[in-house]
Design a protein that fits this description.
homodimer; about 170 residues; mainly alpha; two-stranded antiparallel ribbon; 6 helices; DNA-binding
Chain lengths: ~170, ~170
DNA sequence: TATTGTTATACTCTATAACTATA
DNA sequence: TATAGTTATAGAGTATAACAATA
């Protein structure tokens, strides 16, 4: 991303934003991109992409997780997860084993190297988070997180409702 | 987008998210996508894309705006703006005229039809916003907006700082 | 029949770099 | 030399649909 000749739309009183001014999605997009870029810079060019870091993080925390569950947890389609896992596997960070009791499924686990890499990246993630915390502050952050979660749940399509929920 | 077999990651106590749990960017992404999808659904398949709606909105509010300024205001590169404007022009919603005093620049304006279409879409945008307001509430929304703006400004790269600012 | 994961494919959104025409 | 806008191109990130293996 890394735009060079644009500016935060946030700070241009000379341009009238109209309805956009109170359009949450617009600022959600800008904030998401800012956070994404900042984290990408922190990770560096040869590291994991943020999306794959999310996968590795969930696998690390849930050894043996299957891909369908992983897709749900990460908010991605299973086909996208397949692609991400391949990349993690190619780097030797995870390994997959077939489940004996259901041979359609694969259990994903972080390899020893994957754990090391994960910890290293998690440290960078914490740098990124500290930067955000300094901007947002603890109180606002908690409120922000819960508000974002409410938006995700509140706007969910019917089809997006998980199987096990009313 | 419109994922069918995933669920809000927000509501899965059975999956441990680890560091992701407090990772703002992760929820920023989910919330952004939810809002984007909701607005896209509201607009319908043959209407404008959210990104082009943002352009039209800014043009509508700032008749005669040039593309470089538009790029800054919308947070996009000028090449992306060029593509978006072409689509709006092809639909007859905007028109561009060369500036007499600087013949490198073009002034963009909404056509009469563009104004009509804009108002129609703006009404849909308000439906979308009402839905969000119902979820978030007025108080939290104000706080959310200002927090998002602070994130955008606070994380801005040096290169992203607008020319006219310290 | 239904589900897990894979594949092939395509789409959206966006930026970079090189270019032109003006300044 | 510098700037406004265009073009060609590429890349990230993602989904859909059809499919094979398994349940």
């Amino acid at each position: 991303m890394t735009i060079v000749d644009t500016a935060p739309a946030t700070d241009r009183p000379d341009v009238e934003l109209g309805i956009l001014e109170e359009f949450l999605g617009f600022y959600l997009r800008l904030a998401y991109e800012s956070a994404f870029d900042d984290f990408s810079r922190e990770l560096g060019p040869d590291s994991l992409k943020p999306g794959n870091f999310a996968l590795l993080s969930i696998i690390f925390e849930n050894p043996g997780i299957t891909q369908t569950v992983l897709a749900r947890a990460s908010g991605r389609d299973k086909s996208s997860v397949t692609a991400g896992l391949r990349q993690l596997e190619d780097k030797g960070l995870i390994e997959r084993t077939r489940l004996e009791d259901d041979r359609r499924s694969y259990a994903s686990r972080a390899t020893p190297e994957g754990c090391v890499v994960y910890e290293r990246i998690a440290a960078k993630a914490r740098n990124h988070m500290r930067r955000l915390d300094r901007i947002v502050g603890a109180k606002r952050k908690a409120l922000l997180m819960s508000t974002l979660k409410d938006i995700v749940d509140g706007l969910a399509e019917d089809g997006e409702t998980p199987a096990g929920r009313p």
